[in-house]
Amino acid sequence: MKHASSTLLKLAGTVAAVMALLAGCHDKQRNDASVPASASAPAAAPSAALPSQADRMKQERNSLLDSISGVWKPATGAGLTVISASGNDIQIAQGDTLLPAALGDVDVDNSTVNVKIFWKSGKQEVRTITPTKCGECDGTGAITITAADGTQRDYSFIRKVSQDDLNRIGALSTQVAPLAPAADQPQPNATSDRGIVDMYLGGIDMNMRSCPGSTCAALLIVPKDSKVSVDTSTMRNVTESSGTNTPWVRVTYEGAYCMPEELDQQTGCTPSHGTEAPVTGWMNYTRLMSAPRPQQ
């Protein structure tokens, strides 16, 4: 009898232990089920905003201009050609000659860049630069330049444009001013007197450009109240990108000046350089006529 009671007690204890274990598992499952899925797994990171179509087009345009910029060697002949293109500006130096070039249409879809050349003869030529991808590498390939008569010339890449190249282009710009295309008839508001006229700028700073037209490279900025010599016999009418015809004239300047990148939009030009010799370039004649004050 005593043995039977002991057996019953052991059995009861075992049953109680099993029931407690089952109850614990049930509570754990209930607690796990009550935890939100977001708490048990990290939230997905938000996707990055995609660039707009305008941003993509701008990036592609900048990439195309960058692909034609560099120091290039022609497939035939000697000498090197330096091309620096960005924004709305292009500068091309062949040996010691700075071409009177302005940036034309940039066709991203067809990977072509037009360059307008103003020759000494008065002729304006449009050349087309086409980059080719490097087939066996990730670097820059070659370029082909097509002249207005259809002749083509291939160039191989030597290296990217350095600050030394840009300094040299700047020096060439201040030495020689290229001649522009033949003149159209001057606008009615243009002066009928032809010759060299000294003018003192009034209260505005003015860009002196490498060729006639607002897309031509800015050589330097002439500060307000400075004197420039204007050759009115060089009057040229240029059709700007806006479609308007603007008269330009060749001017000569000697004195203190600013570089275009140094111009402060608030305070204007604070001269930090001086010419070593007279510098010749081009100014917007309409703007020039509204700026000068009478010679003192």
How would you write the strand order of the largest sheet? 4-3-2-1-9-8-7-6-5
H/E order of the elements? Answer: HHHEEEEEEEEEHEEEEEEEEH
Q: How many beta-strand elements?
A: 17
How is the quaternary structure best described?
single chain
- The level of helicity is 10-25%
| Poorly predicted runs | 176-194
Termini, distance in Å?
Answer: 139 Å
> What best-fitting shape do the alpha-carbon axes yield?
extended
Given helix and strand content, the structural type is: alpha+beta
User: Number of helix segments?
Assistant: 5
The biggest beta sheet is recorded as: 9 strands, antiparallel
Strand content: 25-35%
How many distinct folded domains?
2
Backbone CA Rg:
36 Å
| Mean pLDDT over the full residue set | 76
